[in-house]
Write a structure and sequence with these properties.
The chain is of the alpha/beta class. It has three domains: about 100 residues, MurE/MurF, N-terminal domain (Udp-n-acetylmuramoylalanyl-d-glutamate--2,6- Diaminopimelate Ligase, Chain: A, domain 1, 3-Layer(aba) Sandwich); about 230 residues, UDP-N-acetylmuramoyl-L-alanine:D-glutamate ligase, CATH 3.40.1190.10; about 150 residues, Protein-Tyrosine Phosphatase, Chain A (Alpha-Beta Complex). Helices cover about 35% and strands about 20% of the residues. It has an eight-stranded mixed β-sheet with strand order 8-7-6-9-5-10-11-12, sandwiched between helices. Strands 16-17-21-18-19-20 form a six-stranded mixed β-sheet, sandwiched between helices. β6 and β7 form a beta hairpin. The longest helix has 18 residues. The N and C termini lie far apart (about 60 Å).
Length: about 500
């Protein structure tokens, strides 16, 4: 993983000279062009061993496959085109991870790599880092849940964090086109799948941990360990200037790696290195006093509302100890200006205009902690006239459904329980599980599986001064059903339904 292409190939039993002549490396037949090495990987949706024939027709000159499938591969693709090298390995998925960085020339060694993980706040934090890096005149690309942001242009990966070959190719392209750094949002699933293998990080931000992805991880301890992989990787890489920004209440599995500099941040722990004293909170943003080791270090303003966004800023500032130290000495830094005053993050407390004085928001909140944080924020900004539309995803953690129902009903006057992405599950069953948690909370609860109809119903129930939150899908542009995927974006549907009011 850390050696030259020749060293890695010898360890994996591959031909370094033949592989060195390949023009690209990919497990995706759609990316195959003449001269490419195709890795046949058995994934959750497709088995690449069944697509080798297509890869060969597209011009692949080398194929890596699982040794256990070699007989089937040869039978299906006999005879192999002249000059094609077929390399059987024990596990092609492992080989992709271990080979990709060396094949693309270890690009992360020449970039300033920032990794972000945690439960909530990752995407917003990545955009805050991009703003800060831009103010420092360091050209930085971002890979997050919203897509890939390069020089202000956004596009989509198939996954929030792509598999190793695609990720290393992306990093190589950023290095070659002159970028100084890249910010990667890393989910626990991507870390558990070891997609960041071979990525050399300079800095890591670990946000707070709360319940999520327990359909993938057996318990919260396992979930925390999956997140902690990123910290271990940061320490093991040993890049000069490696640094960790850590939420003070993160359940650290064990102890911090020896010698790894770290700043802890918190809104509530006075012993944290970074904390904040709110000065003004409104729906148009916040102003707060930054505290460094308990001492004032200047005021910061942001247009992002809510205490959770102040916490996001603290986490980001924890990556920049030199800036915080200068600020604490009274020096005039980029933090003294309007650095965080003109930010927008799709689907994160995103306002939608309403002509009759209703405060309408779209938010990605899809965990109990996130939903409670957003509802508490809206209550503090607008009062208790809250109306909430939300659902829960199918084929995901079922235990959180009544929890989220209870939270929504506790804060809201009316709750409209609807479909999120039901996937293979019955939407009515998901709704029933959510509603089971709303009992004795006092809210009026409506069940409407059609998400557009639920939004329209909610809009018909609100008036001037009320607050309507549509939660769960945020920036997403599709709704995944059992038998099809539909175009659906909460913001767009809200705009269309508001126009009918």
């Amino acid at each position: 993983m850390t050696g030259s292409l020749q060293d890695v190939c010898q360890r994996l039993g591959l031909d370094p000279s033949a592989l060195g002549r390949c023009t690209d490396l990919t497990p995706d037949t759609g990316e195959v062009t003449p001269g490419v090495c195709f890795i046949a990987v058995h994934g959750s949706r497709h088995d690449g061993h069944l697509l080798i024939g297509e890869a060969l027709r597209r011009g692949a000159t080398s194929v890596i496959c699982d040794r256990a499938r070699l007989s089937d591969v040869r039978t299906r693709n006999s005879p192999l085109p002249t000059g094609v090298a077929l390399w059987p390995v024990d596990d092609s998925r492992v080989v992709e991870r271990e080979l990709a960085a060396a094949f693309f020339g270890h690009p992360s060694r020449d970039l300033r790599l920032t990794g972000i993980t945690g439960t909530n706040g990752k995407t917003t934090s990545s955009m805050l880092i991009a703003a800060l890096e831009g103010a420092l005149e360091r050209r930085t690309a971002v890979v997050n849940t919203l897509g890939v942001l390069v020089d202000g242009v956004r596009r989509q990966f198939d996954r929030a964090l792509p598999p190793p070959a695609a990720l290393q190719r992306f990093l190589r392209d950023r290095r070659d086109d002159g970028h100084a750094g890249v910010v990667l949002e890393c989910s626990s699933w991507a870390l558990q799948m070891e997609r960041t293998t071979g990525v050399s990080f300079d800095r890591v931000l670990l946000t707070r941990l709360s319940r999520d992805h327990l359909d993938v991880h057996p318990d919260m301890e396992s979930y925390a360990r999956a997140k902690w992989r990123l910290v271990t990787q940061l320490a093991d890489d040993g890049k000069p200037g490696a640094h960790l920004s850590l939420a003070a209440d993160f359940p650290v599995p064990g102890s911090l790696p020896r010698g790894l500099p770290c700043l802890r941040f918190s809104l509530s722990d006075p012993a944290a290195d970074l904390s904040a004293r709110p000065l003004a909170l409104s729906s148009t943003g916040s102003r707060f006093e930054l505290l460094f080791h308990g001492q004032p270090a200047g005021q910061i303003h942001t247009n992002l509302p809510g205490m959770h966004n102040i916490e996001n800023i603290l986490g980001v500032l924890g990556l920049y100890p030199e800036l915080v130290q200068a600020q604490s000495r009274g020096e005039n830094t980029i933090l003294s200006g309007d650095l965080f005053s003109a930010l927008s993050v799709d689907g994160r407390l995103e306002p939608v205009p309403h002509p009759r004085g209703v405060f309408v928001y779209v938010d990605y909140a899809h965990t109990p902690d996130a939903l409670e944080t957003v509802l508490r924020t809206l209550a503090s900004l607008h009062g208790d006239r809250l109306f909430t539309v939300f659902g829960c995803g199918g084929d995901r953690d079922r235990e959180k459904r009544p929890m989220m129902g209870r939270i929504a009903a506790r804060y809201s006057r009316e709750v409209f329980v609807t479909s999120d992405n039901p996937r293979s599950e019955d939407p009515q069953e998901i709704i029933a599980q959510i509603i089971a948690g709303t009992a004795e909370q006092g809210a009026r609860v409506h069940a409407e599986p059609d998400r557009r109809a639920a939004i329209a119903l909610a809009l018909s129930r609100v008036g001037p001064g009320d607050v309507l939150l549509v939660a769960g899908k945020g920036h997403e542009t599709e709704q995944v059903l059992k038998d099809r995927t539909l175009p659906f974006r909460d913001r767009t549907v809200l705009q269309e339904e508001i126009a009918k009011c």
